[in-house]
Design a protein that fits this description.
By secondary structure, the protein is of the alpha+beta class. It folds into two domains: 94 residues, no CATH class; 94 residues, Alpha-Beta Barrel (Multidrug-efflux Transporter 1 Regulator Bmrr, Chain A). Helices cover 13% and strands 30% of the residues. It is globular and about 50 Å long.
Length: 198
Amino acid sequence: MGMMLGKITVETPKYEVLHTCPDYEIRRYNPSVVAEVAYDPKQLKGDKDGGFMILANYIGALGQPQNSKSEKVAMTAPVITKNPPEPEKIAMTAPVITTGDGMITMQFVLPSKYQNAEDAPKPADERVVIKEEGEKKYGVVRFSGVATDKVVEEKVRKLKESLKKDGHKAVGDFLLARYNPPWTLPPLRTNEVMIPIE
């Protein structure tokens, strides 16, 4: 019942809040180990969350874990999604649009008991990559509801504007962090947009 009502009962990444203002926070995240999969949503009939089942199978969220140790790995939150880079206009005699490779990357942050990539069970599915993420600093805005493309786009735009106005330099694409399962009531869902900064 708690998950349906938005209660987050699983481990979440550790971070230190460096600065808080009305529109966002600046956070420093500790190093972590992640399980990651990259996929093309066009090959999955437009399913932007197509990587979820691949990662869920790796940790054994829905049955037998698909990893070298057959070890069940505890679910954590959030599920992190990185969309392909925005198309970029390049000044010439006419605009040229570059679209990137169209791949979406989805990550599960593994429980903190895994201190490095070698500690985590090896995935049986070669699409799953285990890697270490170093300490990172992000500008973060939290919001509730359903993280539709339109809502996320607006949150990203406003966060970028606020960060720039306050003198913070973005150094990468935004991440979308979703903390609740799909059956959580939409107004009670916790989401975050995270932009890496210097």
